[in-house]
Amino acid sequence: MSFPSIIMIDPSQEAAELARFALWRAGLHCDFRACSDLSAARRCLLQGRRQADGIVPSLILLESEMECGEGLELLRELRASKHLCCAPVVVFPSYETEGEREALAAGATEYLPKPVDGEHYARCVVEMVERWCDLSEAAAPLAEGVMAEALADLPGHPQRRREDGQPRGRRSH
């Protein structure tokens, strides 16, 4: 099973978590990775340029105003990469600036300032993924066992209890 690969390059952890939550809430299964700085983004994306098995992301969401505006420099590097030159990159700046022309000239597929409202932001992320990704597998129900396998290595969390004190999901006899 191959889920769409979404890479979000944004220094805001809150923006990345809201995007991840929006995709989950929409029922879209994606391989979502967030890079909070340009060096992490370069490692994540450009490492495949040196390795033949580099996977091309289905969508890259790029905050252009990172680290003194160097987000567009990363975009130019991505466009110069043989395996990333055609990956859709949406420049997704935090502030509506006059950077659309520069972003498109640097190779952006689309330029879309982030909505300020959280609900509108979440809807915008889902719409971008729906527009740019093949969702044939992303919207399909997960096969039994896939979620258990994915969660197997995660530490446990306290279960919420029903009003009768029993953990949810268990029936009292």
Automatic annotation (TrEMBL):
The keyword Phosphoprotein applies. Residues 5-129 form the Response regulatory domain. Residues 151-173 are annotated as: Disordered. Keywords: Phosphoprotein. GO terms for biological process: phosphorelay signal transduction system. The keyword Phosphoprotein applies. This is Response regulator.
